[in-house]
Specification:
By secondary structure, the chain is mainly alpha-helical. It has 31 helices and four strands. The strands form two sheets. It has a two-stranded parallel ribbon. Strands 3-4 form a two-stranded antiparallel sheet. It is elongated and about 95 Å long.
């Protein structure tokens, strides 16, 4: 028989401290007031009461199910409040007896004097049943919560609890479930018969829920944070369904569930970079409100000094959830510094001042650049949250000194590259969105993301990074297969197709179909073969048996894969060459395997193109110059992404390749294009604002340089991030 450790036998049972009943009694008073108000409204009492027989006439408790559910739910919070407000059994029994006599029966009898109400004993029964179930639920939940409550008061972070409450206010305001079954049905029906899916709504709720999940996991009040996250999610989703305020959207429910799960995972990873991740998430959430009229502001570029102006002047309660969302983001940014690196943890007031300065700058961006009407709401919330963060975090136990921290475990290796990935995507998103707001941008580019410019830019930033990161993954896979003698070069074409499919999914999410078809061309194969009989009767009969939608989708996909391969194949070859310089013979085999597919992609993109954006703009024989320009661009990206030379040499090479690409572009593009009775150059169409405002040659070159360098930066960033995330194993 094994001995029991003395440390386990000598540990005293620590009982969690008693919680004050004052908040519970305030909650009880609010519930009672709500029941009285809701049951006696509109207070049109009459001096002549209805007969008492009418009260007992409706004694069938299941006669009106909708009314029964209303009365049951109405008294459910009362049972919870009674259980929480009184600790002794005698006090609870007395409160229950008074509630049954005064509220369940008493109010029903008072309704005899209300002509607009119908008093019945069945309603009193369901009121009492709701009260009893509320007592049982409260007892069970309180017992479970006390069992979950951690006794380690030293490491409790009460400011994180405040962030959870802010998130709960954002998601569940105004907290009061509807008693109208018809309204509830209409509210829930909007999930099934929903309007088009909104990625931005999913992004907003997912970000907020992620911050809430991190807060629940890290606030140190629960022994099992997972149970707390699950319970919070159940309550939040339940209130989203039962509180008929606004519209119930599937994006909201998915965002809550996915965000809480992601927050729990991030919160469980005790990494030195976790606070940086919280700051990036919070900044991303706040940028949503900066770059969009999130609170319903006017697009007049004005500014109001009064905070919460709509709420104070007009009583607009719809401004409460957006304000809570912004407060959550601001509070998370404050916490990220005060609980993060020692240089900020020891100077909380300085960190608060820096966050406030950041908010001032972003408010200027909101008004001066975005053109949304601004005010001092966020600044006022920051001034209220900063002292609360300093005060509530004053007693939190300090972590070990940074010099004494153990080296990071192998499991946290991905925490460092993932943060630059998120930051890079956020920077690209903001940069693209700001560029689209500038005057003189080509009109096709302005419509690239349709009506959801910010969400489209966010997804498109991932597609740009994938254009550089995907080829590195392909080159890495080829080299690993070669090291195992699996003939990696032969597998490269299907790998490139797989990369293109990922890019196609991202671009489809970011851009409307009509904008994508302007680049790759609208599907036209079915019309030409079946309707116009271009390829003969055999092809016409064979293709006519296939659904036109399937043929169009396949054609669209093939055209996009070909366009992606034109850029990806030179990058794959170049990255494979610099990754293993001692295997140049294998690289030559790779070139020989990919060259036919590159030529085939060129035919699909240019020779067999059906969009006038290509057929009208490229001169005869211009495909050679375009292919050479793409190859030089890929070489430039590989040089920068692989760090093949010193910085001055790389800068000089980039300048030379930029000039060469301009010369090649001028050789490949038509100088005279006639369209709609107007004459213009091909470069004017590609780089100009429209087809009537002509730009000078230096202006066109400046625009091309900006486009070239921006695309180069995005591709190089994708390569660098992919190499950090998936470095080449030394054994290969």
């Amino acid at each position: 028989m094994s001995e029991i450790s003395p440390a386990l036998t000598s540990r005293p049972h620590v009982r969690p401290p008693e919680v004050s009943t004052l908040p519970a009694r305030l909650f009880l008073a609010a519930v009672v007031a709500f029941i009285v108000y809701g049951s006696l409204f509109p207070f049109d009492f009459s001096g002549q009461a209805q007969s008492l027989e009418s009260f007992f006439a409706e004694s069938r408790i299941f006669a009106n199910r909708a009314d029964a559910i209303d009365n049951f739910i109405l008294f459910l919070p009362l049972g919870v409040a009674v259980h929480l407000a009184f600790r002794s059994y005698a006090a609870r029994a007395t409160a229950v007896l008074l509630a049954v006599l005064l509220l369940a029966l008493g109010i029903q009898l008072l309704q005899l004097y209300l002509p607009s109400r119908i008093a019945s004993v069945a309603d009193a029964f369901w009121n009492t049943a709701g009260l009893g179930v509320g007592l049982l639920v409260a007892a069970r939940v309180r017992h479970a919560f006390r069992a979950q409550l951690s006794a380690d008061n030293e490491h409790r972070d009460l400011f994180l609890a405040c962030l959870v409450l802010l998130w709960f206010l954002y998601e569940s305001f105004p907290f009061v479930p509807t008693l109208d079954i018809g309204l509830l049905r209409a509210h829930v029906k909007s999930v099934v018969f929903a309007p088009p899916f909104e990625p931005m709504r999913l992004f907003q709720h997912g970000l907020a829920a992620t911050l809430a999940g991190i807060a629940v996991t890290g606030m140190g009040m629960l022994r099992r944070p997972l149970a707390g996250v699950i319970g919070l999610g159940v309550v939040a989703v339940g209130l989203e369904v039962l509180v008929a305020y606004g519209s119930l959207r599937r994006e909201t429910l998915l965002g809550i569930v996915a965000g809480l799960a992601a927050g729990f995972v991030v919160g469980q990873r005790a990494s030195a970079r976790s606070h940086d991740a919280v700051f990036v998430l919070a900044l991303g959430a706040y940028l949503v409100t900066v770059l969009t009229p999130y609170r319903g502001q006017m697009l007049d570029g004005g500014f109001t000094l009064t905070p919460f102006s709509h709420l104070l002047w007009r009583g607009v309660l719809k401004e409460v959830p957006p304000a809570a969302f912004e407060a959550l983001a601001i509070g998370a940014m404050l916490w990220a510094g005060m609980a993060g690196p020692a240089r900020w943890r020891r100077r909380p007031l300085l960190w608060s001042a820096l966050v406030l300065l950041l908010l001032v700058v972003l408010e200027w961006v909101r008004v001066a650049i975005v053109g949304v009407h601004g005010d001092t709401t966020t600044l006022a919330m920051a001034l209220m949250l900063a002292p609360a963060a300093v005060a509530l975090r004053a007693g939190v136990g300090e972590p070990a000194a940074e010099a004494e921290l153990p080296p990071p475990a192998q499991s946290t290796r991905l925490a460092h590259p993932l943060l630059p990935l998120a930051v890079t995507a956020a920077v690209l998103t903001l940069a693209m969105w700001l560029v689209l707001q500038l005057p003189g941008i080509p009109y096709n580019l302005k419509k690239l993301f349709g009506e959801h410019a910010l969400a489209g830019a966010a997804v498109f930033s991932l597609a740009l990074l994938w254009l550089g990161g995907g080829p590195w993954l392909a080159a890495r896979a080829v080299l690993q297969l070669d090291a195992r003698r699996r003939h990696g070069a032969l597998w490269t074409p299907p790998v490139v197709v797989g990369l293109a499919l990922v890019s196609y999914a991202l671009v489809n999410l970011a851009t409307p179909a009509i904008m994508l078809e302007k680049i790759i061309g609208a599907p036209d194969l079915y019309r030409r073969v079946v309707d116009d009989n271009y390829w003969g009767e055999a092809w016409r009969t064979g293709l006519a048996g296939w659904p036109r939608v399937a043929v169009d989708a396949t054609e669209r996909l093939v055209r996009f894969v070909a366009l992606y391969a034109v850029f990806a194949i030179p990058l794959v070859v170049g990255l494979a060459a610099i990754a293993r310089r001692d295997r140049r013979a294998r690289v030559m085999v790779l070139v020989l395997c990919l060259l036919p597919f590159w030529v085939l992609a060129k035919y699909v993109v240019l020779d067999w193109a059906i969009t006038d954006n290509l057929t009208e703009l490229v001169v005869d024989g211009g495909a050679f110059y375009l292919a050479l320009a793409v190859a030089l661009f890929a070489a430039n990206a590989v040089l920068l992404g692989g760090g093949m030379a010193r910085r001055p040499v790389l800068l000089a090479a980039t300048g030379a390749l930029l000039g060469a690409s301009w010369l090649l572009l001028n050789q490949a593009i038509e100088t005279v294009v006639i369209n709609g009775g107007r004459v213009f150059g091909g470069l004017q169409f590609l780089l100009g604002q429209d087809r009537t405002t002509l730009l000078s040659a230096p202006e066109l070159f400046a625009r091309w340089g900006a486009l070239y360098l921006a695309a180069l930066a995005a591709v190089v960033a994708g390569i660098v991030l992919a190499r950090r995330l998936r470095p080449l194993p030394a054994a290969s």
